[in-house]
Inverse folding.
């Protein structure tokens, strides 16, 4: 069935000879987008277990990755007329207008520069904007939207719309490419008037030196062992920490606090009602030190001011709050 689907897709895109199937272009897109989170997970595991060595790497991971990623993509564009993911699936870039190739820029300086920007800088900016949206959205939930500037409110309203529009544009280009109505599977390729073709052995960049050939083979082989490395590192640290975890679990469970702040006790209403505002709960949030559930805004403000659970009086901090996500 998979072979039939690939043959059908190739037939649809074969109106312009040399175009790859939609499965190939989507596969290289998925590979390109999955490398960053995989490597970031690797550094997260390392930072959690050796923060004095790898903590700074994880804190500046996005910036460090963008710099290294730019160098890697420059290498593959210069030597293979393709990005790393495109070369992995035996694809190449072909400009649709005349360019002046040079030794280090066989695609032409302008296309080479735009290609590196769209491959590395553009995803980095997308990621930072998404992180900023999540931060502002979280602060909005904290404060209930009070004291928020108009710019932040506009940003909260517009970002989901723009993100949905961009995803719709990507889907449209993928569909038009799949049925053979377009040479571009992405608007980014159309912007620089460059299409993907099946790699031609007669079309290549500069002749590779020993170091360049080693780098290409090393990075290509890294994809095959990447998943194994991630699993091995997780297993290694789990194996090293297994004895300490068992030691902690063997300790007797401590008794609950005996000194409860009497003035902080409040009656607990029926299920589904917040003990603080006595209304139906919104954004259910549990206090992990006591197990009681409140409205998110109510308990956040109370704990921030009093540093204890309003029902039991147990000492509580903001990081002891856990939002509960119920199925809709």
């Amino acid at each position: 069935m998979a072979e039939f689907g690939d043959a059908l897709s190739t037939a649809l895109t074969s109106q312009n000879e040399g175009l790859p199937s939609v499965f190939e272009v989507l596969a290289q897109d998925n590979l390109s987008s999955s490398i960053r989170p995989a490597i970031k997970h690797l550094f997260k595991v390392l930072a959690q277990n050796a923060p004095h060595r790898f903590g700074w790497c994880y804190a500046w991971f996005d910036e460090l990755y963008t710099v290294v990623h730019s160098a890697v993509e420059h290498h593959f564009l210069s030597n293979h007329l393709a990005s790393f993911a495109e070369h992995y699936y035996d694809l190449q870039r072909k400009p649709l207008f005349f360019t002046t190739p040079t030794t280090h820029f066989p695609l032409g300086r302008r296309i080479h520069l735009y290609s590196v920007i769209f491959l590395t800088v553009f995803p980095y900016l997308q990621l930072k904007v998404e992180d900023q949206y999540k931060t502002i959205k979280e602060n909005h939930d904290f404060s209930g939207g009070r004291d928020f500037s108009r710019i932040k409110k506009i940003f909260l309203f517009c970002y989901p719309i723009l993100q949905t529009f961009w995803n719709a544009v990507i889907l449209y280009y993928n569909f038009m490419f799949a049925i053979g109505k377009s040479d571009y599977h992405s608007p980014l390729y159309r912007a620089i008037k460059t299409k993907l073709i099946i790699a031609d052995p007669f079309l290549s960049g500069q002749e590779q030196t020993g170091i360049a050939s080693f780098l290409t083979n090393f990075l290509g082989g890294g994809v095959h062992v990447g998943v194994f490395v991630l699993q091995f590192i997780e297993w290694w640290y789990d194996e090293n920490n297994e004895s300490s975890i068992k030691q902690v679990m063997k300790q007797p469970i401590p008794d609950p606090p005996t000194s409860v702040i009497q003035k902080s006790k409040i009656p607990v209403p029926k299920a589904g009602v917040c003990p603080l505002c006595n209304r139906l709960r919104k954004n259910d949030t549990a206090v992990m030190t006591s197990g009681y559930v409140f409205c998110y805004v109510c308990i956040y403000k109370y704990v921030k001011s009093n540093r204890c659970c309003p029902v039991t009086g147990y000492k509580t901090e903001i990081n002891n709050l856990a939002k509960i996500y119920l199925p809709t």
About this structure: The chain has two domains: 2-236, 262-323. Strands lie at 91-95, 194-198, 285-287, 293-294, 321-323. Residues 262-323 form a domain with the Herpes Virus-1 fold (CATH 3.30.40.10).
